[in-house]
Write the structure tokens for this entry.
Amino acid sequence: MIRANLLFATLCLVTSLAHAAGFQFIEIPGNGSLQPLKGAVWYPCNQPPRNEKLGPFVLSVTRDCPVAGEKLPLIVISHGRGGTFLDHSDTAAALADAGFVVAAINHPGDNAMDKTRINDFPVFVERPADIKRLVDFMLGSWTAAARIDANDIGTFGFSRGGYTGLVAVGANPRFGKNLRLCDGVNTPLCNQVHQGELPELVHDPRIKAAVIADPVSVFFTKDSFSNVKIPVQLWRSELGGGGVTPESVANVVGEIPTKPDVHLVPHAQHFSFMAPCSAEFMQAAREICVDGLGFDRISFHKEFNADVLTFFRKYLTDTSNAG
């Protein structure tokens, strides 16, 4: 009996060590007009996690531990308007626990620490380019780049990050000549829009699957998605918020030609897709953290993260669905 108990305890220890998220900060250097990108990477780790407090966020991770595994799939995350690379930390950790490398960055000028350009039109052009730069870095300069399988790359985007993810995988927004963000603005990009020209947007064909939650869709038309050829899982909140309406997301669902895997979340509001808040963050950002009556964000995120993982496994690591 003692031997059996010892074996059971050993198996539990091995299991706990195999399911931990490593964590490290990253910074991608700027180049010319391109600003540096700051963020973090979650990845498989064979060491037990501990709580790490980063501002109002509390993460269960292992800082700077060695990366475990080979030929690991990569997921890149784009946050919402004025958000941070930590906004979806629980989803990132769940994916890392399951064998994915997950990288997220702050979009320059459109994040919680730097809102200097949050209402400027260029951020809508630069955001997809930021994601491509992140993929380039993870496959090139990141210290464990050799552990990543360059054929298995996905993206996760929420709100304005949902717009970012859709553009990154091939969507083409339409910016009208009377674009409100360019009213009275004399810049090369806005001048291009005033002339009815489409600014050059970056797409990344290396991305093979996308999870999109409550995307900002004001710039999309029925013809915007003809070049989206990859599998998409699209999440909709019943109540919306943050400038995103349930109707606007429903319109996106109907236009993506690959017939996305759609999940409508009853009683959820827009910010319900963000990680459950710590008590400290709850005090600082109640609009983001407080859900409606009858909605349990912690319970929802267990199901949400499991479904996101299942989707990415199906289209990135299951060879029977490749191509």
Summary: The first strand starts at residue 20 and ends at 28. Residues 49 and 159 are 30 Å apart (CA to CA). Residues 297-317 form the longest helix (21 residues).
